[in-house]
Amino acid sequence: MFSNPSLLAFATLIGTIVGAGIFGIPYVMAQSGSLVAIGYFLVLGVVVWFLHLAVGEIVLRTPGRHRLIGYGSLYLGVVGKAFFVFTTVFGIVGALLAYVVIGGVFLRQFLEPVVSLSSFSGSLIFWAVLSFFIVRGMKLIAKAEVVMNVALFLVVGLVLALAIPFVEMSNFSLVGSEGLLLPFGVVLFALVGWAAVPEITDILRDSQALKKLARVIAFASCVTVFLYLVFGLVVTGVSGEATSQDALAGLIPFLGSSVVAVGAFFGLLTVAASFLVLGNYMKNSLRYDFKFPYVVSATTAVLLPLLLFLLGAREFVGIIALVGGVALGLEGVGILFLLRQAKLKGVRIPEYSLPMPKVLLLGIVLILALGVISELLH
């Protein structure tokens, strides 16, 4: 189906989209009901697919290498740059905070057979060790994304293989008694990977495979939605109302603490690699884009999530729901404005051009706006 460049681009996009957000999906599925969660995935899956394609067209229409902040400055001026700076910083700091929280949970679960450790202490240890690498800028960070992808698919594969025999139909509820609005931010957080679109466009830039960019995005979108739904349904089908926010703790009575400890280990590697990649990205952004000194950039990148954690922000699902619903929801609306301006001002003829009927655009804006408002009210 794909040539080698296309396969590499597909793997890069999948690796960016599928991250720690997958661990929050079973919980919101159990709270809101399977039918409600599936509805969110179908609607937001189409919305995010269109937005990924929109970012691809923006990149294809614009010479040079940029990211959303750069495109915001180029097409929307100072206001656009400030908008995407806000959504980018909000999103990164929020994601780093979520990794600190879930990293502490996984560290406790991994060490539980040997030593008793609270999730709070585990989060502090997780933060301290990884922050050291970010401040030092060690080369380990360069390999973190590969480790993250391998570890994540190992833990998902392990959980699915061992949990499927324990699935009980009685554990499913079509519509939950509470949390009907909860899936929006979590599902959006889990589905978004448009930060990788400029990267995969670079991979395809010098080949005929660039014409397959839209197909790569579509195929990656379908695969991730399918993976999330299978994982969410299997875990929910096993643990039912006892489904935990980290997805693993609720499986202990069925799979045993040793199996969950192994899953927690791979989960720990996943979020650790994500923390390193995002933390280093923010450090370098502060250093090169805003001209902060190295020490200030590094310490700001690692101290902001710690400060929020110490102030009491320690609910994993709540954090990713807020980041996904607000930061990514706003960013999605901003991408539509970028696409409109890129179609007017872009100087390069793209390999594909998205239709922009008003009904479609208004529908996407309305969905994202309602999601942002619901998350803020929640």
Molecular structure report:
With 378 residues, the protein is mainly α. Helix content is 74%, strand content 0%. It has 14 helices and no strands. The chain has helices at residues 4-17, 25-32, 34-61, 68-111, 119-136, 144-163, 183-191, 197-204, 213-239, 252-255, 257-289, 294-310, 316-345, 358-377. Helix 4 (68-111) packs antiparallel against helix 13. It is globular. The model has no long low-confidence stretch (mean pLDDT 90).
Give the key terms:
Amino acid/polyamine transporter I, 74% helix, single chain, 378 residues, mainly alpha, 14 helices
Q: How many beta-strand elements? A: 0
- The count of domains is 1
- What is the helix content? over 70%
Structural class: mainly alpha
Short note summarizing the structure:
Helix content is about 75%, strand content about 0%. The chain is an all-alpha fold and about 375 residues long.
